[in-house]
Write a structure and sequence with these properties.
about 120 residues, alpha+beta, Nuclear Transport Factor 2, Chain: A, three-stranded antiparallel sheet, two-stranded antiparallel sheet, about 25% helix
């Protein structure tokens, strides 16, 4: 079963009711790991510079190449432990904000992930 340090709405780890660092497991843990994978920028991780989404070259350099963005995000999500498939993917752009909605099939069930850039 996937287990990760839980984060709050500000993406901060927190102390649970038991006085220990909060842990997420199952589907919430997989979704949290997917959200972090989607937010990781290519080159920002010191020990994994080849991992992350190339947003600067696919989305914000001239006209967005949403096909390349989708391919990169799908690949990043499929690397997350527990993810079996990306079953739906949609993007929209409004007022300089790119939004995406992804449906993910996992070992713990299916769920949606929404994000903006």
């Amino acid at each position: 079963m996937t287990r990760v340090l839980a984060v709050d709405q500000n993406n901060d780890i927190f102390i649970g009711r038991d006085g220990r660092l909060a842990i997420a497991s199952g589907l919430p843990a997989i979704l949290q790991a997917c959200e972090h994978a989607a937010k990781a920028q290519l080159g920002e991780m010191m020990f994994a510079a080849d991992k992350g989404i190339p947003n600067f070259t696919t989305v914000w350099a001239g006209a967005p190449n949403l096909g390349q963005f989708e391919a990169a995000l799908r690949q990043a999500l499929l690397r997350v432990d527990g993810v079996q498939a990306v079953t739906a993917f949609s993007t929209s752009e409004a007022d300089g904000v790119l939004s995406y909605r992804v449906t993910i099939s996992t070992v713990a069930g299916e769920a949606a992930l929404n994000g903006t850039l």
